[in-house]
Write a structure and sequence with these properties.
By secondary structure, the chain is an alpha+beta fold. Helices cover 30% and strands 37% of the residues.
Length: 135
């Protein structure tokens, strides 16, 4: 599979699943047994764990929108640098809704196998996010 096709899979996931909130479509982009190499606190395994985290994030930030700022692909891996924005409308990581706007930067490395994300590693500025909603 080409690196351009792999990058498109990740961009389509971000647009369809995260930005449009079509969480049930996550299986179109992620393998059922996807491995989160650095799981979110309390995240369960596989595709259901990914959906659980996304459901929680969209619940807390219902207008969450991710923007791809850069992508680099080599072989079966895609690095995506992103920024996401949203309004804190429900409890998140123990912080009650503040109704504040947030902007969070991060990067994710996805490994694509058989046109699906097989493993993923996300690094997000959680400290910066917590400063924005707790201050």
């Amino acid at each position: 599979m080409s690196t351009e096709r792999n990058k498109r899979i990740v961009r389509d996931f971000i647009e369809q699943v995260i930005n449009e909130g079509r969480l049930d479509a996550a299986g179109d982009y992620f393998a059922e047994d996807v491995v989160e190499l650095e799981p979110f606190p309390g995240q369960g395994p596989g595709l259901s764990g990914v959906k659980e985290v996304l459901r929680g994030m969209r619940g807390a930030f219902p207008d969450m929108r991710w923007t791809v700022e850069e992508q680099i692909a080599e072989g079966d891996k895609v690095l995506t640098r992103f920024v996401w924005t949203g309004t804190h409308e429900a409890a998140f990581l123990g912080v009650p809704a503040t109704h504040r706007q947030v902007s969070v930067r991060g990067m994710v490395i996805d490994r694509i196998e058989a046109a699906r994300v097989k493993d993923t590693r996300i690094q997000m500025d959680v400290f910066g996010l917590m400063q924005q909603i707790a201050s």
